Here is the input.
Amino acid sequence: MCIRDRVITVLLFVSLGINALEERTTFGQESRLVKAVSRKELELEAKLPFVEYVRHKGYPVEAHEITTKDGYKLTFHRIQAKNQRVMVSKPVVYLQHGMFHSSDVWITNDEEKAPAFILANKGYDVWCGNVRGNGYSLGHTRLKNTDAQFWEFTWQHMTEYDLPAAFAYISNLTKKKINYIGHSLGTTIMFAALSLNIKEVVDNIDKYIAVGPVAFMRHVHNPFLKMAAKTDMGNALLALGVRDLYTPGFQTLRHKLVCSAMPRVCSNLANMFTEGDDSNRNFGREIVYLGHAPSGSSTRTLMHLQQMVNANAYILQKFDYGRAKNIEIYGQATPPMYKLTRIKQRIYLFVGKKDPLADTQDAKVLAELLPNVVYREYNFGHISFMWGKDMSYFNDVLKILSSQEEEATKKSD
Here is the structure.
């Protein structure tokens, strides 16, 4: 492993580890929960990539390569009901992960609690996406992922290229409208796509459920993002030649240096980044979660999130390259805004009351701006929408997908 990766790993963990070590420990609770599933089984699940993991659980699974117009090769995973074969007649749900995650996030909770497995067993044709730059989407038609140019993307490229390619491919194959469930950054890129009225998306989307929705970060209280924004971490990393974050080699090094020796530190760090509260943490599966996350992305995507934090306003805009390059790329000195008031589709917002990334204050402003919205709050943090021990909120998701929620209240106080 190169010296650069070692230095970055140590810096990130040292800078954030102090807070993690101050958190209360719950070893007794963890040990009781682990008894339900053998340690050997959990260690196996921690190592299995998506396809092997799903087969291990007894579900049919397919891997599809989707190529974007700018050449990125994205791997999408398709699953259906347990102990059956894949059929083409089922309603389609596309699940899109957030920042530093992958399709794995939808399957690695307990089987009966994992969103992808719940949907598959309810009769849906489930597609789990992977955006450019994560561990499953490192291919390109021209570039190698070791090339600097490969990593010159932000989340706006996921909006403009990844989503249209995915919707076109899935729609063409299934001949059906697509229900979209996004989490975290998976909601951000969809808000932007709908505001731009991207044809492949708006022509093929059915229902849109935004879980842990992120459009504004005025009230973000996530320690990592606040520190990154305050210190301009993204530019500092670029100055060191670091264009990619949490790629597979980086994760392996992280595990060797920290997580294998101090799993509680790793777990608490992950909780500090995304959760804000540990009351719904599924402690018994943390070894599995740490085996599948974080996944990779570009430093520029982190910079785009930094810009959202530093904006300190209720705006969503494209990446700010600086005045000169903005004029070259956008034809104006400042990055264009995504006009969310133009969105016509009904959007279901699922908001965590304890979410440090998608704060309720920001989410309520978003709900007021959107023309057609249903707003719900749950006693969750951020990642517990995926990995919580209480996943009962998903009953509301199923009602929406089955059209039982059409008369729901559109706004909340």
Q: What stands out?
A: The chain has 18 helices and eleven strands. Residues 17 and 70 are 38 Å apart (CA to CA).
